[in-house]
Amino acid sequence: MAHERLSRRQYITATGVIGGISLTGLSGYLSDGGVQEETLEIVHWWTAGGEEEAIESLLDGYQEANPNVEIDNNPAPGGAGSALDVAIRSRIVDETPPSTFQIWPGESLRPYTDAGVLASVEDIWDDNMRDAYLESVMEAASPEDELVSVPINIHRLNNLFYNVEVVEDAGIDPEGIEDPADVLEALEAADDAGYVGMAHQTTTEWSTVQLWETVFVGQHGADVFEAYIAGETDDLEDEVRESLDLVVDYSEYFSPDAGAIAWDEGNAQVINGDAAFIHQGDWAAGQYGEAEFEYAEEWDYVPYPGTEGVYSMVMDSFVMPEPNPSPEATEAFLEYCGTVDAQERFNPIKGSIPPRTDVPIDEFPPFLQNQMEDFEASEEQPTTIAHGSAVRPEIKSEIEEAFSRFIETWDVEETTQDLLGAHEAAGY
Amino acid sequence: MSPSRSRFRHRVRRVRERVISLVTGSGSDRRERGNSSNGRRDQGDSEDLAAAGTDESARDSVRTNGTARVAADGGTATSTGFRVRDRLDRLRFNETLQAALFWVPPALLMGWFVYGAISWNFVISLTDWSGLGQPDYASLNLEMYWRMLDDRSFIAAARNTVALLVVFTGGALVVGLLLAILVDQDIRFENTFRTIYLLPMSLSFVVTAIFWAWMYNPETGMINVVLRGLGLEVFAMNWMSDPRTKLATIIVALTWQFSGYCMIVYLAGLRAIPDEHYEAAKVDGASTVRMYWRVIIPQLRAATTSAAVVLMVFALKAFDFIFVMYGTTPGPSADILAIMMFREAFARTNWAYGSAIAMVLFLMALAIIAPYIYVQYRRGEL
Hints:
The complex is a heterodimer of chains A (428) and B (382). With 428 residues, chain A is of the alpha/beta class. Helices cover 51% and strands 11% of the residues of chain A. Chain A is globular. The longest helix of chain B has 32 residues, at 95-126. The radius of gyration of chain B is 29 Å and the shape is flat. Chain B starts with 6 loop residues before the first helix and ends with a helix. The chains are: A alpha/beta (428), B mainly alpha (382). At the A-B interface, helix 3, helix 4 and helix 16 of A face helix 9 and helix 16 of B.
């Protein structure tokens, strides 16, 4: 009996101690998460190799310029922001946003501007910055009338990368391919020579979304693409069908294991010399660098045939949510993101080009130097559907669903109707 | 008297009564009015009914205070002071109050974080909340539920969820039972085998999804390599991209992961069956198959039920696996409600529609759990 009572008392004590500890832990969170003037909490999804280094280098630069600010680097890892969306949207609804977070500029910003939770950053954009940014980039940074974000990097989507040796062996001259339909002939030639024509993944839908939109721009021009993303789809049935037809034709030359691989496994097929081509954003070049696969000698690229003079932009930007826990630190951070110093630090490591056109090119590897020249010389800079800037997230999700059906059935007719009706189905 | 008085406390009270009656030597005393049988819910138990009867008769005729004095009838024979003391005593010995320290905090926490959240989710599903603003609770209706009937994505996801639920649960139970029977044959290294079979369950879905994707690879994956090696090239398919086998890729991988768990549950069930049953069946001349089919398996009903409930709930939540393998839009042949709920809520900020899908999932889970709980309750095992 005495023993029993003792053990019960111990039990209660233990419970109490555990409770006390957990409460202390909780209160620690409460005070940490609270508003502290000088702590900049930054949420982003850059946690893989080079990306992580790039953001750290950016934050180092910011810290040097603002030694008094404490930085709370709070990544939400997950491909293309899948986890970040969850974290940020919940926090916005709860009205406890971080100081700043990563987001694709353009239509991705709409849910936030609709809810009026993004502060105007017009003041941060001084004349020097406005002169250095292209008009199209500034438009993406201001989905409504005023600027609400600061783009920090630009990737290009419309590239066709290839393995030099494979292409030579198959007797293909990539520079000579003129339009998306000619790509099909090149894929055939590679196939005849015993290679995979186009490394591609269909496990998830996004690679096919971006292939289709690039083919669409290549076939019909950026203007028609702009009409599509604006929802003016009434007269576009033939155009949409034509581009989908071509993607189905391509699919014969996709990696035979397309349905079971991720995009980087597809890219590895190009590196290994199994596949001739891959259509990807220029982040694919980062993998070549890691594999010590030499630019111009072992791999090379052309703008996707039919899209010369077009720079399809995949951008990242930072914003200032309201109510902001650290208005001054956030403002200083966004100002910093718009400087030459920040963009020169961040982009060479990230493998993207700076949105400012006055950043010295010496620090950049040769491939990016070419891209920077292409960017400045480009006539049109559309944004992309697959990477969030071209259409609202709701419409993007509708289009992704259409493509998730497409890569199961390859049904052009059904997908054409789905794509034409995507805006309406999403309620816009 | 709290109507939610638990059976456990009731037992504790009975034990205490017995101890007290032993100490005082009287058959029934120290009853509190608060402990009358009015609130009792466990009428299925005959012993309790009998106890309740004693309770009823003892309640008014026998009353004691702290000194174990017996009063004939409290209503007529006591002064006001006595009543106050009596009431205080009753309060002091009221177990509901005494136990409150232990059950109130968890009950409040559970009530708020679990049942409160579920109720709030239901209310949100009645609004038309979307976007990043705040919900408008002024007009509540069932619009989101009607919308499902018209939504081919929902229908596909619901169909896949049910298919996954049924086939995966059945598959894992059958495989688990076979493994359990094999491991139960007094084999050597039994513990080793048990651990090997149970091990997949300890792996995270993220890990298993990635390596099953490698196994399913039509070019280099183990499955097709083995099929080709056996000369069965006709069967070497594009497992993950063929809509006919896409859901099967998920079911097979999950079955592999959870059949070890079923094996453990069944093994415990098999060990509880006395050897005489096997011997009697053998003596009666039953074949091994017949013995298991007629004699052993029917005795594993409880194991089957509890394993099936766990598996079905896992099937409803197979989110991680599909998310890693196919992303947030797995396509109509692999989409399930859990993934669709995530997509609607977080990709499209359709909070209300997402909540409605969550309610459907909740009701499905309830439809599985409730009969099980009820049966357990009826058998007095709860």
